[in-house]
Amino acid sequence: PQLMSTKNLMTLEYVVRSTEALRQMTSSKEPFGFAIQYEFRTDLGLSGMNAERSRNHLCYYIFNSSRQASGNIFSPNHPGYYPRNIDCHYIFHGSE
C-alpha cells in the first residue's frame, strides 16, 4: 500500500508472529522480511513539470507557450494519493 502523511512525521509499526509460526502457516522455506521504499517530497512531486511555480501558493503552476509548446501535467503526489486540503491551479498562456 502507499502511505502519505499530511504532517512532517509518520510512524510505521510492523508486527509479525514468530518466524516458526509463519513457516507453519505457509510451508515456505523462503526467508521472511520486508522492503520499504520511501521518498521525502517538498514539492508535491510536481518538479517534473516544465512550468513556472508561484512562490506565494503551494500548488500554482503557470505554463507559457513561449517557454515550451507541449509537456505533461501531474496531479500532486502522482501516482500516489491526492493530498488532503490541496487546491491546485494550472494556468496556460498561449501565443497571441
Automatic annotation (TrEMBL):
Keywords: Disulfide bond. It comes from the Eukaryota. InterPro entries: CUB_dom, Non-NMDA_GluR_Accessory, Sperma_CUB_dom_sf. Residues 59-96 form the CUB domain. The keyword Disulfide bond applies. This is CUB domain-containing protein. The keyword Hydrolase does not apply. GO terms for cellular component: plasma membrane.
